[in-house]
Amino acid sequence: MRFFRRFNKQRIFIILCLIVVSVNTPSLLLSSHRLRHLGYDASKEFVGDLAILKHKIEVQALSAVQQEEVGSLKEPILDVYRDGNQTSAVSLDTIDKNDTLGQPKNVRLVGNDVTTHDAKKESLVTTHDATVTTHDTKNESSVTTHDAKNESSVTTHDAKKESQPSLQEKTLATAREKALEKSRLKEIQHGQNVHSHPRRVLDERVKEIKDQLIRAKAYLNFVPAGGNSNFMKEIKLRIKELERAAGDVSKDSDLSRRAIQKMKAMRSTLSKASKMFPECSAMVKKLRAMTYNAEEQLRSHKNQASFLVNLAGRTTPKGLHCLSMRLTTEYFALQPEEQELPNQHKFQNPDLHHFAVFSDNVLACSAVVNSTVSTSTAPEKIVFHIVTDSLNLPAMTMWFLLNPPGKATIQIQSIDSFDWLSNKDILQNQESLDPRYTSPLNHLRFYLPDIFPSLNKIVLLDHDVVVKRDLSGLWRINMKGKVNGAVETCLEGDPSFRQMDMLINFTDPMVATKFDMKSCTWAFGMNIFDLQDWRKRNLTGLYHKYLKLGSNRPLMKAGTLPIGWMTFYKHTRAIDRRWHVLGLGYDSGVKLSEIEQAAVIHYDGVMKPWLEVGIQKFKPYWKKHVRYEHPFVQRCNIHD
Question: For labeling, which of 74, 147, 197, 282 is most exposed (least CB within 10 Å)?
Answer without folding.
Answer: 74
